[in-house]
Amino acid sequence: MSGSPRWTERQHALLEALGVRGWWPAVPESTAPPAPAAVATAPMAPAVSDVSPPAALAPKPAPVSTPAAPPLSPAAPVAPVAPAKESVAMAPLAVDAEGLVEAIHACRACGLCEGRQRAVPGVGAMPAGWMVVGEAPGEQEDRQGEPFVGPAGQLLDAMLAAMDLHRAAPEPARQVFIANTVKCRPPRNRNPEPAEMDACRPFLLRQIELVNPKLVLLFGRIAAQSLLGTDEALGKLRGRVHRLADGRPAIVTYHPSYLLRQPQDKLKAWEDLCLAMDTFEQLP
Ligand code: SF4
Fold first, then answer.
1. Measuring from each residue's beta carbon to the nearest atom of ligand 1, which residues come in under 6 Å?
2. Ligand 1 centroid, distance to 111 Cα (angstroms)
C-alpha cells in the first residue's frame, strides 16, 4: 500500500463515507492526528519484507523457546514475525466444515457448555482471504448463535467496510470469516480461562485450516494469547506482523468492545488495520 495513491484515496473515501467519526476519534482541529490517508502511507505500516518495525511500535518479540511448526503452505516468509509457541501448534480436528459446526454445537469439552444457550461457531465465507478472531460470545451472540452482533458487531462491520472487507463479498480477497476464540459464552461475560481456551483451540485451528485465510486479524488479548502462545500485553503485540504456528501472518489489534469503551484508541486500531492491509497486499 505504501506509495499507492489508489489505496489511500479509496480508504479515505470509505472512511468519509462511513461518516468517519463513526469509529474515528473526534478530536479538536488543533490537535487532530494525521488523516486516515496519511496514516495509511506512514512508516508505521512497514513493508512485509521490512524486518525492522518502526521504533515506536516495535517492542521486542517474546522469547520463544521452541521453533514454530513449519508453514502448511509454501508461502513466502513474512517478517517481522513472532512465531507462536509450540503449545498452540496442536493438531486441529479432521472434520469438514459441516462436521465442524456439528461438533461445536455438540461439544461439552469444557464447563462453558453448561451456561450456553447456543454455541457460536462463526460466520462468513469459507475459504476467505481474511479471518477475524475475537474473544468469546456475549449475551446477544449466545442468544442468536452469531459472533459480533450488537454494538461491537456494528463497529467491527464498520472497521471491515473501511478496509473493503465483507462477510459475503464476491471477490475472495475481500471476503472475511469471523469467529471467536471460544465458542460458548463465559458466565457474566468474564474472560475465558486458559483451560477453556485450550479445550476450544482445536475447533479454532480447524476453522483456520478450512478458511485458509492469507492473513488473520486477532481482535483483543484473548485471541492473541490463544493463537500466539504469549502473555504479553496487547499494547506490546500491536504494530508488527506475527506468525501463527502454521506460518500464517497475523496482526493484533484492539477488540471492538474495548474501542466502544475507549474510543480514543480507535486511531491506533486504524493504524493496525493499515498495517494489515499493507501486509496482505504484499503476500503472494
Ligand atoms: Fe466446547 Fe469450546 Fe464450548 Fe468449551 S467453549 S464447550 S470447548 S465448544
1. 104, 107-110, 112-113, 119, 182-184, 196, 199-200
2. 8
